[in-house]
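Hi support team,

I've been running sequence recovery on a batch of backbones for a student project. Most finish fine, but this one hangs at about 90% for roughly twenty minutes before it completes. I'm not sure whether the input is malformed or the queue is just slow. I've pasted the structure tokens below so you can try to reproduce it. Let me know if you need the job ID as well.

Thanks,
M.K.
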């Protein structure tokens, strides 16, 4: 391959773009509901914080974050480490990423 060969990298879709509520808004899904609950729209907040299907993963994440004295669990904390001491921000983001890997 020559130096002019283009490299194509695969990137996962941005968070939330494969969730039912988002796909439904784009008319790529017949309904917005969580495939496990079937009663709640599958949005990022439901997936990361509320879905009973991932209760054990939610509990483990909460436990790990509590060891860092992080008790506020909301989207801005989990996705942007907002309100978290700067020294703990990379850890919070790694823990959130690990949750996403385990539940996807």
């Amino acid at each position: 391959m020559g130096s002019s060969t283009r490299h194509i990298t695969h990137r996962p879709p941005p968070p939330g773009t494969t969730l039912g509520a988002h796909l439904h808004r784009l008319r790529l899904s017949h309904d917005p509901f969580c495939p496990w609950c079937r009663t709640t729209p599958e949005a990022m907040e439901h997936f990361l914080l509320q879905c009973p299907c991932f209760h054990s993963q939610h509990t483990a994440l909460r436990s790990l974050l509590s060891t860092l004295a992080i008790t506020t669990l909301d989207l801005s904390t989990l996705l942007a480490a907002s309100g978290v001491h700067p020294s703990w921000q990379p850890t919070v983001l790694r823990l959130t990423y690990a949750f996403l890997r385990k539940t996807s």
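--
Follow-up from support: It reproduced on our side and the slowdown came from queue contention, not your input. The CA atoms of residues 31 and 40 lie 11 Å apart. No action needed from you.
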